[in-house]
Amino acid sequence: xxxxxxxxxxxxxxxxxxxxxxxxxxxxxxxxxxxxxxxxxxxxxxxxxxxxxxxxxxxxxxxxxxxxxxxxxxxxxxxxxxxxxxxxxxxxxxxxxxxxxxxxxxxxxxxxxxxxxxxxxxxxxxxxxxxxxxxxxxxxxxxxxxxxxxxxxxxxxxxxxxxxxxxxxxxxxxxxxxxxxxxxxxxxxxxxxxxxxxxxxxxxxxxxxxxxxxxxxxxxxxxxxxxxxxxxxxxxxxxxxxxxxxxxxxxxxxxxxxxxxxxxxxxxxxxxxxxxxxxxxxxxxxxxxxxxxxxxxxxxxxxxxxxxxxxxxxxxxxxxxxxxxxxxxxxxxxxxxxxxxxxxxxxxxxxxxxxxxxxxxxxxxxxxxxxxxxxxxxxxxxxxxxxxxxxxxxxxxxxxxxxxxxxxxxxxxxxxxxxxxxxxxxxxxxxxxxxxxxxxxxxxxxxxxxxxxxxxxxxxxxxxxxxxxxxxxxxxxxxxxxxxxxxxxxxxxxxxxxxxxxxxx
Length: 505
Fold this sequence. Notes:
Layout: E1 9-18, E2 21-31, E3 36-40, H1 47-54, E4 62-67, E5 70-72, H2 77-82, E6 85-89, H3 100-105, H4 120-133, H5 150-163, E7 168-172, H6 180-195, E8 199-203, H7 207-213, E9 216-221, E10 224-230, H8 236-244, E11 262-271, E12 275-283, E13 287-291, H9 298-305, E14 313-318, E15 321-323, H10 328-333, E16 336-339, H11 343-347, H12 354-359, H13 363-366, E17 367-368, E18 371-372, H14 374-387, H15 404-416, E19 422-426, H16 434-449, E20 453-457, H17 461-467, E21 470-475, E22 478-484, H18 490-497
Parallel strand pairs: 3-8, 3-9, 6-7, 7-8, 13-20, 13-21, 16-19, 19-20
Antiparallel strand pairs: 1-2, 1-4, 4-5, 9-10, 11-12, 11-14, 14-15, 17-18, 21-22
Helix pairs in contact: 14-15
């Protein structure tokens, strides 16, 4: 590992304020070459604001930045790039209709007057070399980005950053959509870059990953620097305590007993190539989890139940009566709500304000002749933001400007506003910090106490084990196991998820 006694970049007394919110408050830290420096904190702690300042997307109100000991003013991303600062975020900045090679070297064509002078062959050869270094020697650099997997797209994004000869690489949740194996491959690449002297700033909500990969850890809370730790001195419990300023129990207490009455029932749901004779039921006030690997088809299940995809065989019953749910509107009319896994693309309308995001599923009650009752809508949305403790500067703040946890609570508020009897929640806490997770879990538990049936589809086994009365396991489109909360453990669930075990349903 290459290290240096002098920092490559320092932020000194950085302060940044948005309307009603101080995002960063006198933050000072130093980052060294040949080190992986993790930045952790709850959503809204200031992590993304700090990164955006480092890459020139935002300007600080106070404070300064030093690069190799000298002051630097990063007024825009172009200056950051020239200074050797590059970022890879969870929201990939790739052009899907361009090739892999074109995406990697697109930054070099800035200012060129004609496509004909771009040295395509040279770029293709260089792209092949970069991908070979990243463990993808067989990947065709002429493929369009839209035609490769998310994992490969993430590596293309990293290759793009490496091609800029970055000395400071910022990784902001770079593996949020990757499997464990894909994540480890990315981590191996990051460690190799560190060993070559690159300074890596790493942001993740997964504290076990932070402890696995980082050399140093800085904790932010409410825009302030709370602590700086060496990896050897850090534990998950300590990081949680520093992040939230309180203890967060990994268990969520005793769940209320569900009613005997069956609320939602699925019988023989079959979709060619997707689902095979899926049958289960959920009682009033019961929380049922769905576990499975990425290819288990668990991720498609919610869309079929909510009418987003057509069902050709099988039956769905609500309160004992068979229902033909052929569209989301019909699902909502039957008391169903679906919270999708990808909140930014499928759950939130990012360019709309919070109020309109919440009322959009209840417009028939808040409008006349196509005209929305503004005052009534304000009161309606305010009631649900207060009920779910959505932290915002105003109802008219854009959804895009909320933290991930508050976006998720606003989406839950929209569903709750339809007075549902059955909630389908897909990856309820993906990309959300530990404090916001606890709040989301409490919302789910409160709904169950009120008699709402809950179906949680999640890739996090600990999430399901801690929050569900029962867990169903899917493998190749089938339910291969059912575990009560007392029976559930990660090894047995994984054995069902990999087809090694069939536990009686």
